[in-house]
Amino acid sequence: MKYSSRSNPVRPLTIAVAATLSAMGSMTWAQSEGGGLMLEEVVVTAQKRDQSAQDIPSAINVIGASAIKDYNLQSFADLEQLTPGLSMETKDARAGSIALRGIDYNPNSAAAQAVDVYWNDTPVAGGGGVFQQIFDLQRVEVLKGPQGTLQGRSSPAGAIIMHTAKPDMEEIEGSVSAQFTDNNGINTTAAVSLPIIPGTLSTRIAAVYDDSDLDQNKNIVTGSESSKEAKAGRISVAWLPSDSLSVDFAYQYLQSDTVDFNILMGAPLQDSTLPALNPFDRKGIQVNDTEGDSTYQRASLKVAWDVGDHQINWLSGWSDVDASIEGENLNSEGIQDPAESQRLNTEDDSEFWSQELRWSNLDGEIWEYMVGVYYSEEDGSFIRHDFRIGGGPDRDRVIKTPFNYKSTAVFTHNIFHLSDAWTAQIGLRWQNRESTIESDMYAGPQGLFGLPEGEYFASLIPEEDQDRDDDAVTGAVNLQYHFNEPDLMVYGSFATGYRQGGVTVAAVDLGDKLTFNEEDSWSTELGFKSTLLDGRATLNGAIFYQEFEDYIARVARVAVSTSGSTTGITDNADAEITGVELDFNMLITENWQLGGGLSYVDAVFASGEELACNVFDESGVPVIPAGEIAASCDVGGDRLGPQPDWSGGLNSEYTIPFSSYEGYVRGLYKFNGEREDADIGNLDSYQTVDLYLGVRSESRQWDIGLFARNLFDEEEIVRATAPGLHRRQPTGYQSIDVVPQRLMGITASYQF
Q1: Where are the domains of the chain?
Q2: Are the CB atoms for 593 and 633 separated by under 8 Å?
Q3: Is the peptide bond between 486 and the residue preceding it cis, with omega within 30 degrees of 0?
Q4: Is the pLDDT reported for residue 634 higher than 60?
Q5: Residue 575: how many CB atoms within 10 A of its CB?
Q6: Measured distance CA(527)–CA(603) in Å, rounded
Q7: Alpha carbons 191 and 376: distance in angstroms, whole number
Q8: Could you tell me how many helices (H) and strands (E) the chain has, helices first?
Q9: Which residues contact 76 (CB under 8 A, 6 or more apart)?
């Protein structure tokens, strides 16, 4: 069935390229006009030192505090809007997926993340709680490409580092803001710095409250509408006991409650009383709503101590996750008979802490070096209660999956200033990961095959597969050359990535499909970073190639021969990625700023590779070859995930000065190209436009504005899951994600 969407007939990619070329043409005009304007230097700590983003020999996007405020970025997934090549997806109330440079990731894969997330430079285990509110941030750094040297863990696609706002050491200052939206939404934030001993000790307190009906999805069975309520608080402390010692501490508590359901499309095949659903109806069919209740805590401690010509840095991180979901099993979507409704209740409970110690020299004229050690441990459990309502005994099971992960690493990073123009960087990291994961099935309250509640039934992971001990060496080599005229840096890099293998945690016997191999990758990148027009513009670009051996992929809803149901399987296949990236930013005039970026990524499985899959007969029933756990399909040339080849965006602000205040018009354009989805076929391109209008004081002390996200109410399917099956028979429905509908609102903020 083909569903059409309301799309602008003008080719969006042509618009993006034309706008970029137009901006580059304006650079010549701005240069001839002079004026003395300059872009503010963006300082980052991506390489564990304070550096200009323009001096780092790798692709990096930085989203500062002003951009987060100006574009109303209030959830982690909103960062996608300002970062071409980055895709965010909120899977459910407890987890999300981050894809970068076409490298996809499924949080249910039991594999390490493709893009690691850091909070004040400390790792966030399993992405716990990152797909929630963001507030009072200083900046976000998006590092692209394999992170195999400097970051806490090795990841093949990149890293996202969130830096919270630090306390002001000298004076009381802060801000309050409120936003009201037409999805019954309200978002309020407040932050204040309170110096205790000016110049020596200060604290900052920040909080947020967010309540809305999300995208106003509806459950046609219960009549409910999606909703979310989140509240969070943070306290930060900065202590400067001497000129050579600094201590920064932050603790955050976040609590979130959600009600949501899968959006369905299709026509019923098993229940004729149900309606056919268009994807843009935003409707689901669930006997019970899916409810999430999550609490996330995290803390970071950073100590920097100058000892002569060297510095010792100690980073300590801690996080605690307590998340639960009660709702429908996806296998029964489109079934409204309570006796046939499959309930799936899950509980996540984990604690994670990390330690990192670094020793580095200060102001090395020829050789800047750093050595460090890293250790982290995560301990927790995942509990899944799976039962059929009204199904009677023998259908009620509880699966308990305790786990423990220990990671140890030793690393070094070296910068050699070979001459005034040439710089080389060499990094190396040895890492070891010990993992223990068990998964046992017990009888639920209704009993399981004659066993009373709580009785052990079976182990889903054989003892020989429960423990792993793997180590690997990763690294990076960079060579860069600086030109004075023009202000241009060109670089070339080679880097490696790694992810440990593991086991698929499932409620069925997977036989030889239970385990998956470790993943190795290597990447090359050529790029440039330029500052033009006497500092009024930057233009950066890169081309890259990455090759994977045993890329870790997740295939959802695969029919297996050992059960009458379907399950997800984590599998391996070789892959390769080729891509190009471009971004720019410029001050056209004193009152007009323009920026944007463009990304092209071709991320595909290598020729002849196979993965587990579903093969259907003419009636839509899965067929499994005799003697096999699951069917296999040739995926050579298929995309690694549903991310688009082309993505890009433009952002611009124009201000109109008045006597003591100024008006502004701000726009954000985002384009996503055509995509291939294994479960639905080709998906059309789409684009969204966000518009912001408002007035503010010249000093930006107060600001009042109106905004509209997805101004033209673009409708398009973003991704889909496999067609729904109930008792291995197709339901006729398919679960999908769509572009969020138009959202309008008003904002007001005040800084003091």
Answers
A1: 12-751
A2: no
A3: yes
A4: yes
A5: 27
A6: 19
A7: 31
A8: 2, 44
A9: 88, 96, 130, 131, 132, 133, 134
List the beta bridge partners of residue 464: none
Place of tokens 């006009």: 33
Query: Residue 641: which residues within 8 A CB-CB, separation 6 or more?
Result: 87, 99, 102, 103, 104, 603
Contact residues for 59 (Cβ-Cβ < 8 A; gap 6+): 143, 144, 145, 525, 527, 540, 542, 544, 581
Task: Classify strands 158-164 and 115-119 as parallel, antiparallel or unpaired.
Answer: parallel
- Cα 577–579–583 angle (5° rounding)? 150
Taking the C-alpha atoms of residue 144 and residue 163, their distance in angstroms, rounded to an integer, is 17
What residues have CB less than 8 Å from 484, skipping those under 6 apart?
A: none
174-180 contacts at long range (C-beta below 8 A, 24 or more positions apart): 174/751, 174/752, 175/749, 175/750, 175/751, 175/752, 176/749, 176/750, 177/69, 177/747, 177/748, 177/749, 177/750, 178/747, 178/748, 178/749, 179/72, 179/74, 179/745, 179/746, 179/747, 179/748, 180/745, 180/746
Tell me which fold the domain 12-751 belongs to: Maltoporin; Chain A (2.40.170)
Is residue 359 within 8 A of residue 309, CB to CB? The reply is: no
CA distance 55 to 73: 27
| Cα 51 from Cα 139, distance rounded (Å) | 14
Per residue in 539-561, pLDDT (tens digit) is 999 999 999 999 999 988 888 88
Adjacent-strand bridge partners of 176 = 190, 750
Identify the band that residue 290 occupies on the pLDDT scale cut at 50, 70 and 90: confident
Question: What sign does the dihedral 555-558-563-565 (CA atoms) show?
Answer: positive
Bridge partner list, 594:
586, 652
Dump pLDDT digits (tens) for 389-438: 655 556 788 999 999 999 999 999 999 999 999 999 999 999 999 999 99
